[in-house]
Amino acid sequence: MKVIKKLKLYVPGVFLLGFTLFSCTNLDEVPYDKIVSENFYQTKEDIIRSFLRTYEHGYWSIQSSVYQMQELSADQLMTPNREGHWADGGTYLRMHKHTWTPTEGFLNEGWEALFVGIGLANNSIEDFETLDPARFGLTASELNLFIAELRVMRAWYYIKALDLYGNVPIVTKFKGAPINPPQSSPAEVFAFIEKELLEAMPNLGVKGNPSITVNRWTKAGAAALLCRLYLNGETYTGNKYYDKCAAIGNDIINGKYASYAIEGRWDAPFDWNNDLSSETLFAFPSSFGRTHWHYEGGMYWWTMPYNAPQYLEFDDKGTANPRFSMQPGRDVDNNLYNFPSGLGQPFVKFQNYADDVRLGLYKNLGDNKRKGMFLYGYLDYGDGKRVQSDKGKDLYIRDAVGWFGTLGPGQYPADKESSMLHADQNSGVYYLKYPFYKTTDDHKMESDYAEIRLAEIYYSVAECKFRAGDISGAEQLINTVRKRYYPSGSPSLYNGELTEKELLDEWGREFLGEGRRRTDLIRFNKFTTGVWWDKEADGSDHTKLYPIGSQILNASPQLKQNPGY
């Protein structure tokens, strides 16, 4: 929803009009119209439009460089050079090998995506604090609810900024904000986020009120953000917050902030009606005819081969483009890798539990139903046809990386190279966590993006228990989620087998492709020390934080580059 209002979007390190990044020396504001905050708000609808603007931008931001920075630098997903496709000047190679430099474009885009959202939230908060709610048919508590939700939305952006960049400015003003605000340390940003969430919570609503849905921040959603913050608190501050994480996580599980429950069907949290799911704590709304950012090329639309839409019987968006797939678990001769760190090989880790229902080949069944979560092998569709590459070759998708051409099962290439620079479209299993239903189905591309699921809270509390030595308690919590993936009585459920390695593996299975793997690796001290496919250990911990992009630094000389760059 566009806000028809003059917005000077101030972002630390850059002055923005719209979303275009540039540097300038004259920062005086020049009004080009007469619609400013003093006369913009005429009706209740104007307030709602302003309130929703940062939500809309937040939804857009999930498929920006922020997603790639989380997933492509970790051990599960990859964007290799597929015979010239996705070479992109070596950007994805450097992201994979942790050899990025401050000149990378994705660093500027990630910063911009987050701080534009923060600026939008600040603008609306500052405006709302000066308004008389009665003039717009609102009560004071209703306006305070809007302000509280905007503070949580701002905290959501700041958690991501803290995670990626660490040393960032804390900006809570829009009008009269300093052009060059100072940076704060990660510990200071952590304290700010914690304070914002705790102060906002009393004024938030709960799911189930007529006007409060999972697409707005509720007490449970804010509590979940606190749980997320505390789980990673040692990374940010050097201090452990597992007791706080477990306490607030148990409050959510026990229904303190409304009733939530783990779904019994594996795909329910991602299905077309997941806004009504008992597992959804917060989600960005999606529909085929309006916005559906997680269904775009920056995220899930390009987690499939070029002509996979033929196999899906979905022809509303044209062809796909194999940008993201899973890193290989095997070499070109189908031999298992054995990385000493135990990292990588995501599909193999699913296969370690052979009765996992998710392992089935993805197939649309009609009537808004599907089975399976992965694309692999031959993708046959209608009259013996098979999905082909953009070069017209039948694909046989495998859990390996190389140049396989038209080789089928049991056939291996003479060329044994397997690297980020040496892949084709057969390389790497593809994943479809969110469904792409048939063109003829009523609810195609309608799934909301589930930013926070109750499963995250169960896993977070389980990790706290594990770190406190309560292995049985941790297994019980995780099995509450895992049991939906296996038949009744399955030996795949944990029963005394949970180790630290298995716990990290399980985080990877449950949250594959959900934009958090890098954070989890850092918390387990594996991000810089670990080895995975075509990736050696970093040799330094400075890559736990990304550098601040050179364009941001050039625009704001008061900012100091992160250590090591």
Automatic annotation (TrEMBL):
The UniProt entry lists the main location of this chain as membrane
Write down the SUPFAM superfamilies for this protein, in alphabetical order. TPR-like
Q: Which residues form the signal peptide?
A: 1-23
* Keyword list, A-Z: Cell outer membrane, Membrane, Signal
InterPro entries per the record?
A: SusD-like_N (IPR033985), SusD_RagB_dom (IPR012944), TPR-like_helical_dom_sf (IPR011990)
* Cytoplasm listed as a keyword: no
Q: Which PROSITE patterns match?
A: PROKAR_LIPOPROTEIN
| Chain ranges of the SusD-like N-terminal domain | 66-231
Mention any Pfam family matching this sequence.
SusD-like_3
Q: Where in the cell is it found?
A: Cell outer membrane
**Limits of the RagB/SusD domain:** 423-565
Top-rank lineage group of the source organism = Bacteria
Tell me which GO cellular component terms the UniProt record holds. Answer: cell outer membrane
Family that this chain belongs to:
Belongs to the SusD family.
| Name used for this protein in its record | Putative outer membrane starch-binding protein
Tell me which species this is from.
Answer: Flavobacterium aquicola
